[in-house]
Design brief:
The complex is a heterodimer. By secondary structure, chain A is an alpha+beta fold. Chain A has 9 helices and 19 strands. In chain A, the strands form 5 sheets. In chain A, strands 6-7-8-3-9-10 form a 6-stranded mixed sheet, with helices on both faces. Chain A has a 4-stranded antiparallel sheet with strand order 2-1-4-5, covered by helices on one side. Chain B is built from 12 helices and no strands. Chain B is globular. The chains are: A alpha+beta, B mainly alpha.
């Protein structure tokens, strides 16, 4: 049980050289005791590197990392009291499930009887009791994943580190394990840092989610606020599935257009827009916030994705002299098919970003 | 013989490829027989009388074990079979042990935690093999003489260790490089010391590779003749020198030489057989994934 703090922590490859790359750049992040924080981002965003810095597997070139107010920046992994689950599980192939789970305790010279009791307790929590004497190769993917979890929880560490632990499972098992993992973390109350590239996993599991891109922290917030109030263009495009409609538009005085319609702007956005010298902006609307209305912008359906409960209509909309593709959520029982014409308008929250800097206009939605 | 393990059942091949497949297996058999035949003939000759062995090649003869008893009992040269066998055994065992003790940490440093310029280091290791041994025998001989090591087992232990080390480092490095890095990292996080990571996590996984490497070192050291005959041709020498001493300068010696060669080959064949069984089991266990 501990809180974790990154203070301007950077990981730089090729230090001092011409091609020096900041894989993680001046990361500032506070993770509360007992929190499940998800680090999410596309590949190459530095999320795994940030996690490995906390684990002690990557050098911290600048800044520091604290676990429970102890500076661990220069400590080797074994002195950090952490446990990690790897994407490929990294189970020791020559050891049985029981030996795998008890390995850390054995290294800590815990007496055999006590070790056994702790391993059995962890096995009970994870339904692994019948498999304790098996070798990892005789287990299914899901079971291996649980053994990796067992190896982590058996030591009651201060922090759990998860590096895409579900990405080797099939889709159905992944969804099931996701829930189990979140439940387990809540029951144990141990701080967890969880890395994933899957924004759905991030949104469903995290108490808070930190979005990274190109080694920079973009935003850290609760899943709901990330969704309702993305801080910049990157977060807006990354969070949400299907993605937010992001339509670039030129300003016409202090007005912005969405197809043939004028975008309704709140007072604070209006104020920011007036104050801004930029000419190009991006209008962001989630598919569920587009409505069909007779006086909306005309567009033509190109693809209809039926998901049962909902359907998503991909439509081509004349906008700013070209055709822009927008996605509209409609009822699952829709009669719209390819080639149909519809008229749409913004019927919910709208997000305006500066096209150059990507920064959000107006106050964050609370 | 278990040296040949059953291959997995082949998929049926159709059409034109079938002809190619047959041709390939035919070629494989020819090459296999080309390698096998000299050994076969050597063994056959060992069971012949000298007069039969020196006459036209034949498979129709009265087999006898006399040549084997002659070469093992006779003390014609400076070295008896028992002495040579004992010397070889210890020299090979100790030099191989040294090689493994030195090569495992070196391979770890070159694969799992590659330091700067590791490629250059690796190349340097193998570059020591570029020079023909005959080109360095003079300085080696002089150094051995000055250290009063001529005619000792020690000089061969040292040279065989040096001779096999680059090969062992290269082989072990490639085996270690196959091990997922996360396993070592997991061991680190689990609180394992560096020695523990190698001993408890790495070595059990790469055991088949370590066995293969050790076997190769054993074979090379067991068969080494040049250093042995130059630096240690007398009572402290090894099996290849003893085999050579079975050549007589008058009379016929083909059958005796064959018998001696068979005896010299046998321990390596047995070692190979034992090691191969272990290696295959290790690999079949799917040790890594």
């Amino acid at each position: 049980m501990a809180e974790v703090r990154y203070e301007k922590a950077s990981r730089i490859y090729g230090f001092g050289g011409v091609g020096a790359v900041r894989a993680v750049n001046e990361l500032d992040l506070n993770i509360a005791d007992g929190e499940l924080l998800v680090l999410v981002g596309p590949s190459g965003s530095g999320k795994s590197t940030a996690l490995r810095m906390l684990a002690g597997l990557e050098t911290v070139n600048e800044g520091s990392i604290f676990i429970d107010d102890v500076d661990v920046t220069l400590k080797p992994p074994q002195d950090r009291d952490i446990a990690m689950v790897f994407q490929n599980y990294a189970l020791y192939p020559s050891m049985t499930v029981g030996e795998n789970m008890g390995f850390a305790l054995k290294q800590a010279k815990v007496p055999k009887a006590e070790r056994r009791a702790q391993v059995e307790e962890a096995a009970r929590i994870l339904d692994l009791e019948p498999y304790l004497d098996r070798k990892p190769k005789n287990l299914s993917g899901g079971q291996r994943q649980r053994v990796a979890m067992g190896r982590a929880i058996v030591r009651s560490p201060q922090v759990f580190l998860m590096d895409e632990p579900l990405s080797n499972l099939d889709a159905k098992l992944r969804v099931q394990t996701r829930t189990e993992l979140a439940d387990l973390q809540a029951r144990l109350g141990t701080t967890m840092v969880y890395v994933t590239h899957d924004q759905v996993e991030a949104m469903t599991m995290g108490h808070r989610v930190a979005v990274l891109d190109h080694g920079e922290l973009q935003q850290v917030d609760t899943p709901r606020r990330l969704y309702s109030s993305p801080a910049n263009l990157f977060v807006a495009g990354f969070i949400g599935s299907p993605a937010m409609n992001l339509i670039e538009t030129d300003r016409t005085g202090d007005e912005l257009h969405f197809g043939s319609t004028v975008v309704p702007l709140s007072d604070d956005v209006q104020a920011d827009l007036k104050a801004s010298a930029s000419t190009r902006f991006v209008v962001g609307v989630r598919p569920e916030h587009l409505i069909q209305t007779p006086d909306g912008a005309p567009c033509g359906a190109t693809v209809v994705e039926e998901l049962g409960s909902d359907a998503f209509v991909h439509a081509s909309m004349p906008h700013n002299g070209t055709e822009a593709t927008v996605v509209v959520r409609v009822d699952g029982e829709t009669a719209i098919t390819r080639g149909d014409n519809l008229t749409i308008a913004i019927g919910g929250p709208v997000h305006i970003f500066d096209a150059e800097s990507g920064v959000r206009l107006g106050k964050p939605v609370t | 013989m278990a040296l040949f393990t059953r291959a997995p059942k082949a998929e049926p091949i159709l059409g034109q490829n079938r002809l190619v497949a047959h041709l390939l297996s035919f070629l494989t058999w020819i090459i296999g027989l080309m390698f096998f035949f000299p050994l076969f003939w050597l063994t056959v000759n060992g069971f012949k009388e000298e007069s039969v062995a020196s006459a036209d090649p034949t498979l129709r003869f009265e087999p006898t074990l006399d040549r084997f008893s002659e070469v093992t009992e006779a003390n014609s040269g400076l070295l008896s079979f028992a002495e040579a066998f004992g010397n070889s055994f210890w020299i090979v065992l100790i030099s191989t042990a040294f090689v493994m003790v030195l090569a495992i940490p070196a391979a770890y440093a070159l694969s799992i935690r590659p330091m700067k310029k590791w490629r250059d280091v690796l190349f340097f290791f193998i570059s020591t093999k570029f020079l023909p041994i005959v080109g360095i025998i003079m300085p080696v001989w002089i150094i051995a003489r000055d250290l009063e090591l001529l005619g000792t087992r020690t000089v061969l232990v040292v040279l065989y260790t040096a001779m096999n080390l680059p090969l062992a480092v290269w082989m072990l490095r490639s085996f270690f490089a196959e091990v997922p890095k996360e396993l070592i990292e997991a061991a680190q996080i689990d609180g394992c010391s560096l020695i523990g990571q190698i001993r408890q996590v790495l070595l059990p996984i790469v055991a088949p590779g370590v066995a293969a490497t050790a076997l190769l070192c054993v074979i090379f050291a067991w068969n080494e003749f040049f250093f042995a005959v130059q630096l240690n041709p007398t009572g402290a020498s090894t099996i290849p020198v003893w085999v050579n001493s079975q050549q007589k300068f008058q009379g016929q010696f083909i059958a005796s030489l064959s018998a001696a060669s068979v005896l010299a080959t046998l321990p390596v064949v047995i070692a190979g057989w034992v090691a191969q069984k272990r290696m295959i089991r290790g690999l079949a266990m799917g040790a890594i994934k």
